[in-house]
Amino acid sequence: MQIYVNTCFSCSLPRYQIGMTLIEALVAVLILTVGLLGAAALQLNALKYTDSARMASQASFIAYDMLDRIRANSSADYQWGRIERAPTTSAGVRDLDLRDFQSNILGFAGESAKGAVAVSADEVTVSIRWDDSRATHTAGARETFTLTSRIGSASRVAQ
């Protein structure tokens, strides 16, 4: 952009000013600032959603681990509720599996996380529930991962 400026009072030749004005520089800085703030917000959201996906993957690993333990010891009753604490006195395989399940859940999502195992005939449902308010922007938002699978009914003991 060229602006005609006649600053020579003693001569009649015109001079041209070449360069940016202060207003143009401020507009450019404003546009750059808005772009950088948008990129920062995008990065923060990506971190939140990545954390949420990591939590769901970890819950999946824990649930599949528990399901494999139930299949390996299919004669035991693994029925266990969200509010119950895992057995601490017995040293049986079932009690050890439930303690490991509980400690895995607490280690992955803290004290607010809960787990449950429901056994119905030859079907097992493993549920894990945790606080996911960071990703959803809602206070107290809970996420649940539920895994349901059939296990061999011939190896199950009638209850």
Automatic annotation (TrEMBL):
The gene is pilV. Keywords: Membrane, Transmembrane, Transmembrane helix. Residues 41-81 form the Type IV pilin Tt1218-like domain. This is Type IV pilus modification protein PilV. NCBIfam families: type_IV_pilV. InterPro entries: N_methyl_site, Pilus_4_PilV, Tt1218-like_dom. It comes from the Bacteria. The chain crosses the membrane at residues 25-47.
